[in-house]
UniProtKB/TrEMBL annotation, chain A:
The chain crosses the membrane at residues 53-72, 84-104, 125-154, 166-188, 200-217, 252-273. Residues 53-273 form the ABC transmembrane type-2 domain. Belongs to the ABC-2 integral membrane protein family. It is a multi-pass membrane protein. Its main location: membrane. This is Transport permease protein. Pfam families: ABC2_membrane (PF01061). Keywords: Cell membrane, Membrane, Polysaccharide transport, Sugar transport, Transmembrane, Transmembrane helix, Transport.
UniProtKB/TrEMBL annotation, chain B:
Belongs to the ABC transporter superfamily. InterPro entries: AAA+_ATPase (IPR003593), ABC_transporter-like_ATP-bd (IPR003439), ABC_transpr_TagH-like (IPR015860), Bact_Polysacc_Export_ATP-bd (IPR050683). Keywords: ATP-binding, Nucleotide-binding, Transport. This is ABC transporter ATP-binding protein. GO terms for molecular function: ATP binding. Residues 2-216 form the ABC transporter domain.
Length: 279, 216
């Protein structure tokens, strides 16, 4: 032990060399991949237990909720939707919204609940968020695949334009991810965020365009709702699903702009909040 | 080697004001060092260890790590209480890129948890937790181990085993152990430092550090 005392500036000469910038970036990506994989498995375990039925709940929960609402809707049978089965209409709207809301709501406790993991240097806040969000996205994607495959098999109704649908779904996830990062960083900084976010996600439902097509709204209302990127994404999803049967209104560049901005801001916010975390 | 230069850390207190935990602390930890850090409760020992580990960031100053450094081995952190010991071991193996089987076998052998290996970690006694933590970190093979009191809680048998393993493991590697119990330090460390009121004073001789600490 050499007892260096305060005031000695600069690095000592015999410090081992650092690896090149490129090597460290590559290594960093490998580490991040490993960490996210481990976090995903852990998240599955802590949320659903080790039992196999626990794992099933991941899919059953959104499936049941969307299913019940869908059934209620189909019993009420009112709108002028032509050949569109009301059940499908609701599932395609509600399942992605379910993932969106889960990502945002769960983001408020993301850091608090995982502080103990932050004792491992390689576990970064961004990894924790990505692992959680990927799980939510995976679950809802599975639900959609099950429902769509099921209806295609039973009723012969298949998505009109699958690539558009997949792209819209990816945009929805990316948008939720960015907002989730912002919410998580905000909640780590100010307690109020946690209180505000939950009611907000409920209030936001009617404005999200998840449960109705904008085509059936008066033009003025439609224009207002289209300021919301989420409403655009839901329209795009339905466009991919139902095609010409329901006219869709969305601006792809507008949505992509939002997605990029929200994710960049989110990553910056998470990074800024990391240095301030207290253990 | 861990090199830290003029590191300062303070916490903001509620209602304004600051609590300075470390002021301009510098030092080097070289391969082969076994350094003990003594300090009273709340002196900032755990904060220092977290910063050496790169987990918490200093307000000013720099810390360079040029060897692999363990996570801070302290009670109730770094593991997940709702998960079993075995699942925690799998998680650690994954994030530290170790073969899962190797980590599991090592921990089972070292921690001697028996059937508790498959019980949630929240059901563990303090001693069992300490054994699990040390076992996990030893399974990974770091160049430097940062130990925050966890070795203090074991029974005789555990202390003897931990001592033997630490002596073997840390040959040519480094150990930083913080504690408020001088006897504990004497068992594991060759040099020592005292952390008091934000400054860190190094001593070549552990007994000298203990005497200084007791006189505080």
């Amino acid at each position: 032990m050499s007892a260096a005392t305060g005031g000695s500036g600069g690095l000592p000469g015999d410090l081992p060399e650092r690896r090149s910038e490129f090597y460290r970036t590559l290594e960093g990506l490998r580490v991040q991949g490993r960490v996210i994989h481990a976090l995903l498995l852990r998240e599955l375990q802590t949320r659903f237990g080790r039992g196999h039925l626990g794992f099933l709940w991941l899919f059953l929960e959104p499936l049941l909720l969307a299913g019940v609402i869908g059934l209620l809707k189909s019993l009420m049978q009112s709108r002028e939707m032509g050949n569109v089965p009301p059940f499908l209409f609701v599932v395609v709207g509600y399942a992605p919204y379910f993932a969106f809301r889960a990502i945002i709501n769960r983001a408020t406790t993301a850091f608090q609940a995982n502080m103990t993991l932050m004792y491992h240097r390689q576990v970064r806040l961004l990894d924790i968020m990505l692992a959680r969000n990927l799980l939510e996205m995976g679950a809802v994607t599975c639900v959609l695949v099950i429902v769509l495959a099921g209806t295609a098999w039973i009723t012969d109704f298949s998505p009109y334009d699958l690539p558009t649908m997949v792209f819209a779904l990816l945009l929805m996830f990316a948008f939720a991810n960015g907002l989730g990062l912002l919410v998580a960083a905000g909640a780590a900084r100010w307690e109020v965020v946690d209180r505000i976010v939950h009611p907000l996600t409920y209030i936001a439902l009617p404005f999200s365009g998840a449960l109705f097509a904008l085509h059936f709204l008066p033009a003025r209302w439609r224009e207002i709702l289209l300021w919301n990127p989420q409403a655009n994404i839901h329209e795009m999803l339905r466009d991919g699903m139902f095609g010409d049967q329901i006219p869709a209104y969305y601006d792809l560049t507008y949505v992509i702009g939002w997605v990029v901005i929200v994710n960049l801001l989110g990553m910056a916010a998470v990074r800024a909040v990391r240095a301030k975390l207290e253990f | 080697m861990i090199y830290f230069d003029r590191v300062s850390k303070h916490y903001d207190l509620r209602g304004g004001g600051k609590k300075h935990v470390l002021r301009n602390v510098s030092g080097i930890i070289r391969p082969g060092d076994a350094l003990g850090i003594l300090g009273r409760n709340g002196a900032g020992k755990s904060t220092l260890v977290r910063m050496l580990a790169g987990v918490e960031h200093p307000n000013s100053g720099r810390i360079e790590r040029r060897m692999t450094v363990s996570w801070p081995l302290a009670h109730g952190v770094g593991l997940q209480n709702s998960m079993s010991g075995a699942d925690n071991a799998r998680f650690i193996a994954r994030i530290y890129n170790q073969p899962i089987k190797k980590v599991l076998d090592f921990v089972e052998d070292f921690a001697e948890l028996g059937p508790y290996m498959d019980m949630p970690a929240k059901t563990y006694s303090v001693g069992m937790m300490g054994r699990l933590l040390l076992g996990l970190s030893f399974a990974v093979d770091f160049d430097c181990y940062l130990i925050d009191e966890v070795t203090a809680t074991g029974d005789q048998r555990f202390v003897a085993r931990a001592q033997a393993l630490l002596a073997e493991k840390t040959r040519g590697r480094s150990l930083v152990l913080v504690s408020h119990v001088p006897e504990h330090l004497k068992m594991y460390c060759r040099t020592a430092a005292v952390l008091n009121e934000g400054s860190l004073t190094f001593f070549e001789d552990v007994d000298e550090a203990v005497a200084t600490y007791k006189a505080l």
